[in-house]
Write a structure and sequence with these properties.
360 residues; 16 strands; binds zinc ion; globular; 2 domains; 29% helix; Quinone Oxidoreductase, Chain A, domain 1; 7-stranded mixed β-sheet
């Protein structure tokens, strides 16, 4: 076996390279090495590429005194190539879904199911603090707690959404936003996570689902996936339109799934008294919080990184086709074409890309 593999590596703002890297090896007895069969690009990866996360390089330099780049990606499926001596649940040859969140399972935060903040080297680390899935092989720490067996019957494009987009939408927007039967909700941002919000919100039977996005193509897709109303803020005042749809009241839950000041503003100004603003977007700059208007409204505001503690449940829902995520897999590329895939995903409004699937 050759000792190198191809990987997409981040070196700094606007500098990613498709290059040869050493094949990862087992470092801890709880590790597994996965040979990837499908991966994808997340909006978060585009953010890293643009330079939103300078802490990646800073942390690497602090820990090891050097910076050799970081392989991107925290989503995908693959086949177990090798397991460490302490891994009990998986063996070579198993087909698995890689979760974007790794968890030791025993630290104080893991015991509270706050896996995103695992204190023993877990949390969101892949494609961030350690090398990720946009490679031929990936090392996954805490394999027993961080991988899911891929059922033979599950569509493999759908499976890719279980790494991140679906659990993030469900946990950080829908669960934290406390969506209930009969609620009016607004989902601001119709990317893959926003679509995850849209589909999983329907578990809880809201009566009105307003999806807001600048891209008409994405709004069209949202309608097909169950949105009752769509709003394009480049054509109309989104807050005014949401208030109009809801009889002047605003929504019970506004979900922010973009991560820029303008979309945050739509959310904070369109939620009604006693409602929830559930922020899921990764913000790269400060937003204003209109406390002078909102102090009186009995709101809750939630933020968070996915814990992936509902991934197992979502996997079962996908298996019985309750969540047809594969319809959102608009583009397919070979792994050797990953640079092209980045280009297409980066220009999603022109290319009509929702999720790009990369096959090996
Ligand atoms: Zn992601
Ligand atoms: Zn932990």
């Amino acid at each position: 076996m050759s000792k190198t593999m191809k990987a997409m590596t981040y070196y700094g703002a606007n500098d990613i390279r498709f290059e040869d890297r050493p094949i990862p090896t087992i470092l801890a007895p709880t590790d597994a090495i996965i040979r990837m069969t499908k991966t994808t690009i997340c909006g978060t990866d585009l953010g890293i590429w643009k330079g939103k996360n300078p802490e990646i390089e800073a942390t690497a330099r602090e820990k090891t005194g050097e910076w050799t780049g970081r392989i991107l990606g925290h989503e995908g499926i693959g086949i177990v190539e090798e397991v460490g001596s302490a891994v009990k649940n998986f063996k070579k040859g198993d087909k698995v879904i890689v979760s974007c969140v790794s968890r030791c399972g025993s630290c104080e935060n893991c015991q509270k199911q706050l896996y995103a903040h695992c204190r023993q080297g877990g949390g969101w680390i892949m494609g961030y603090m350690i090398d990720g899935t946009q490679a031929e092989y990936v090392r996954t720490p805490f394999a027993d707690n961080s991988l899911y067996l891929l059922p033979e019957t599950l569509n493999t494009d759908t499976a890719v959404f279980l790494s991140d987009a679906l659990p993030t939408g469900h946990e950080i927007s829908v669960q934290y936003g406390n969506v209930k039967p009969g609620d009016d909700i607004a989902i601001v941002g119709a990317g893959p996570v926003g679509m995850g919000c849209l589909l999983t919100a329907q578990f809880y039977s809201p009566s009105t689902i307003i999806v807001v996005d600048m891209d008409d193509n994405r709004l069209e897709m949202a309608k097909e996936m169950g949105a009752t109303h769509t709003v394009n803020p480049s054509k109309e005042d989104a807050v005014a339109r949401i208030l109009e749809i809801t009889g002047g009241r605003g929504v019970d839950c506004a979900m922010e799934a973009v991560g820029v000041p303008a979309t945050w503003d739509i959310c904070q100004h369109s939620v009604k008294e006693g409602g929830h603003v559930a922020n899921v977007g990764v913000h790269g700059q400060p937003v204003s919080f209109a406390l002078e208007k909102l102090w009186i409204k009995n709101l809750t505001i939630t933020t968070g990184l996915v814990n992936a503690n509902t991934t197992g449940m979502l996997l079962k829902s996908c298996e019985c086709s309750k969540l047809p995520m594969n319809k959102l897999a608009t583009h397919h590329f070979k792994f050797s074409e990953i640079e092209q895939a980045y280009d297409v995903f980066k220009h999603a409004s022109e290319t009509k890309a929702m999720k790009v699937i990369i096959e090996y």
